[in-house]
């Protein structure tokens, strides 16, 4: 993989922390030119400074993925700065607190759909539109195991991630013959801030026991699969929702 991403223009949402931050670091080391968006502009700027100090070309902008204008603006920034968009990773997302379905408030449900589902829809819409003008490209959506099955106590999140899976398959089918690949990664729980902020150590231990490997996946394990899915040499895989779950989906 060392030079597969050399001079590739890669857009990442939710790039200031978690999977997005680690992915940006690995892509920068592999020679990619990065276009990064996040709501946390302070952390995003710190990330950019670290990347630039290592020789990576990177531009950043505040991006609330629930806003179509801001998602479109991130794509425009890629084109204005680097002339094209080769790869896009729709990584930004939220989780929400654990609660029974009947206790979920409407505003919680709406927020999950706005960020986790509509944010991916906006990304696909504007990223693919640009890719069609340049002869193709690759999109990776970060879904979840909650997009492939039930997610007790995470009903709103589950609904949104099922939407991500459906959007992934639909976009892949619509644009496969236009040289645009669209896939999704469906991780099990991983100790990124999005998880640790809502699940204490006891809860994470319970979740780990549900996994055949008896542990959560590390961010590095998830990001390594993300790199495989967006690798320019991976030219025939599209419409796939890849579970990275330590064996959970084997049952």
From TrEMBL:
KW Oxidoreductase (keyword) present: yes
Keywords: Oxidoreductase
GO MF assignments: glucose 1-dehydrogenase [NAD(P)+] activity
UniProt xrefs under InterPro entries: NAD(P)-bd_dom_sf, Sc_DH/Rdtase_CS, SDR_fam
Keyword Oxidoreductase: yes
Superkingdom of this protein's organism: Bacteria
EC nos: 1.1.1.47
Protein family (similarity comment): Belongs to the short-chain dehydrogenases/reductases (SDR) family.
Descriptive protein name: Glucose 1-dehydrogenase
Organism of provenance: Halioglobus maricola
């Amino acid at each position: 993989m060392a030079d597969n991403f050399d001079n590739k223009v890669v857009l990442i949402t939710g790039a200031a922390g978690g999977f997005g931050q680690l992915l940006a670091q690995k892509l920068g080391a592999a020679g990619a030119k990065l276009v990064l968006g996040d709501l946390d502009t302070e952390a995003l700027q710190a990330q950019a400074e670290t990347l630039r100090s290592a020789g990576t070309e990177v531009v950043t902008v505040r991006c609330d993925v629930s806003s179509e204008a801001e998602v479109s603006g991130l794509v425009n920034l890629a084109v204005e700065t680097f002339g094209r968009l080769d790869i896009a990773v729709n990584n930004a997302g939220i989780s929400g607190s654990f609660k029974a379905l009947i206790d979920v408030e409407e505003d919680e449900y709406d927020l999950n759909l706005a960020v986790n589902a509509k944010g991916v829809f906006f990304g696909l819409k504007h990223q693919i539109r640009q890719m069609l003008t340049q002869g193709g490209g690759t999109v990776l959506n970060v879904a979840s195991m909650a997009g492939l099955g039930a997610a007790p106590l995470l009903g709103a999140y589950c609904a949104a991630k099922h939407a991500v899976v459906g959007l992934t398959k639909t976009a892949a089918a619509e644009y496969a013959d236009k040289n645009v690949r669209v896939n999704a990664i469906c991780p099990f729980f991983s100790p990124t801030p999005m998880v640790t902020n809502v699940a204490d150590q006891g809860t994470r231990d319970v979740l780990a026991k549900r996994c055949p490997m008896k542990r959560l996946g590390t961010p590095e394990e998830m990001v390594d699969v993300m790199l495989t899915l967006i690798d320019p040499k991976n030219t025939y895989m599209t419409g796939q929702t890849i579970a990275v779950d330590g064996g959970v989906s084997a049952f």
